[in-house]
Automatic annotation (TrEMBL):
The keyword Signal applies. PROSITE patterns: CARBOXYPEPT_ZN_1, CARBOXYPEPT_ZN_2, PEPTIDASE_M14. This is Zinc carboxypeptidase. Residues 1-29 form the signal peptide. It comes from Saccharopolyspora kobensis. Keywords: Carboxypeptidase, Hydrolase, Metal-binding, Metalloprotease, Protease, Signal, Zinc. InterPro entries: CARBOXYPEPT_ZN_1, CARBOXYPEPT_ZN_2, Carboxypeptidase_T, Peptidase_M14. One of its GO terms (cellular component) is extracellular space. GO terms for biological process: proteolysis. Residues 117-418 form the Peptidase M14 domain.
């Protein structure tokens, strides 16, 4: 994808633009795809307002630490950033950034050397089958629907009497809405493993499994995940694989979809919201599954965590407004989000904040889960705290155990709170 031939074309195209721009404005309206290759920039001294502004140029904030934002932008988006007054320097080409990570070639479809501990789609499905097979009384696997390319989106239910729909608070953990956020799949697999293999020996696990119905969805975006690793080199892919550009699943949910400048209508933007709310089959499958948990008029899922990477944050709704209290959120409800969010953050060392404190988002999972269903819903941005670019999405496999067990206590807090 980032061959030297393409680089040569980029240089030539850029030279043409310089030469022709004064005479022919139409040249810049026909960018070659090479000219669209994104780069990574660092923007110091940002706050939630300026980060929202950055995203509005079509660029995407991919990490924040102490106000320093890491930003992904195409040349065109970078130009808009500069025009908006952001000082962004030269940037590092995405191909270059990925080459630093892609230290060794993997077999197609597999993670490369140093990343073998990660589970690809097939390995994740096999792991869920193994768990369900080893613990048939408390674990059952099914599918919530299919992706664009026809892959099942598997879900594991964990509870005592797992074959029955009992009257117990239900809790949802979902992972990997964003393709390149592979560490999150491992987080969901950690939850699946801990609450099954620990059942016989760990009284706290037994209490949670007996008293709750736990739903784990390790890969919301199976096509994007597979595409990201399929060539043997990471692609830095975020969206699903709908049409050629993909849709950002976490801007495609149906609560105040596209309302507030927190997503893009440009298919080339990383936060492209899609043609309509639920236009992505993956979000539609999530909606149908969560809607199906309304029993006798009451939503059974009481609490949820949507795992992402990176920046080490605990986020709560709303994302579409910077107001704490608004339509659909009372002060009391907000205070509960902040209290439980703060407690979870205390346990894992993340920073707790409202989702819009990162930047404004609309059509994300949090806003719909709370706005539509009053689910106590959080988004976790996992390790690392800062990544210096795309590297943050690709920590080597030797961090998996530490960075997933790091969230055990937070998961336990949420399971407790689901019964409150
Ligand atoms: O609710 C939120 O603020 C979501 C944050 C999430 C997103 O969808 O933009 N951050 S991520 O894309 O870097 N995982
Ligand atoms: Ca049960
Ligand atoms: Ca139930
Ligand atoms: Zn994400």
């Amino acid at each position: 994808m980032f061959s030297s031939r393409r680089k040569a074309v980029t240089v030539a195209a850029a030279a043409c633009l310089v030469l022709l721009a004064p005479f022919s404005a139409s040249v810049s309206a026909e960018p070659t795809s090479a000219a669209q290759d994104p780069a990574i920039y660092t923007v110091p001294n940002t706050d939630s307002t300026s980060r929202t502004e950055i995203n509005r140029t079509g660029a995407q904030v991919i990490g924040v630490r102490d106000g320093v934002a890491t930003v992904e932008a195409t040349p065109e988006q970078a130009q808009r950033l500069r025009a908006a007054g952001f000082v962004i320097g030269e940037g590092t080409g995405l191909g270059e950034a990925l080459q630093r990570i892609n230290r060794g070639q993997a077999a197609p479809g597999d993670f490369p050397p140093g990343y073998e501990g990660y589970h690809n789609y097939d390995e994740t499905v096999a792991e869920l089958d193994r768990i369900a097979g080893a613990h048939p009384d408390i674990a059952a696997k099914s599918s919530i629907g299919k992706s664009v390319e026809g892959r099942d989106i598997p879900v594991l239910k964990i509870s005592d009497n797992v074959g029955q729909d009992e009257d117990e608070p239900e809790v949802l953990f979902n992972c990997n809405q964003h393709a390149r956020e592979h560490l999150t799949t491992e987080m969901c697999l950690r939850i699946a493993d801990r609450f099954t293999s620990g059942y016989a020996s760990d009284p706290a696990v037994k209490e949670a499994v007996d008293g709750r119905e736990i739903w784990v969805i390790p890969i919301v975006n199976p096509d994007g995940k597979s595409y990201d690793i399929e060539s043997g080199d990471f692609q830095g892919w975020r969206k699903n694989r709908q049409d050629t550009t993909g849709t950002d699943l976490n801007r495609n949910w149906g609560y105040k979809w596209g309302c507030c400048g927190g997503s893009s209508d440009d298919p080339n933007a990383e936060d492209y919201r899609g043609t309509a709310a639920w236009s992505a089959p993956e979000t539609a499958a999530m909606r149908d599954f969560i809607d199906s948990r309304v029993v006798g008029g009451a939503q059974q899922i009481k609490a949820a965590i949507d795992f992402h990477t990176y920046s080490e944050l605990v986020l709560w709704p709303f994302g579409h407004t910077s107001d704490d209290v608004t339509e659909g959120m009372t002060q009391e409800e907000y205070d509960r989000f902040a209290r439980v969010g703060g407690e979870m953050a205390q346990s894992n060392g993340y920073t707790p904040q409202q989702s819009s404190d990162l930047y404004v988002t609309d059509g994300d999972s949090l806003d719909w889960m709370w706005g539509q269903h009053k689910i106590l819903a959080y988004t976790f941005e996992m390790y690392p705290a800062s990544g210096g670019g795309l590297d943050g999405f690709y920590p080597p496999a030797d961090v998996i155990e530490k960075e997933t067990t790091r969230n055990d206590a937070a998961v336990d807090i949420l399971l407790r709170e689901a019964g409150a």
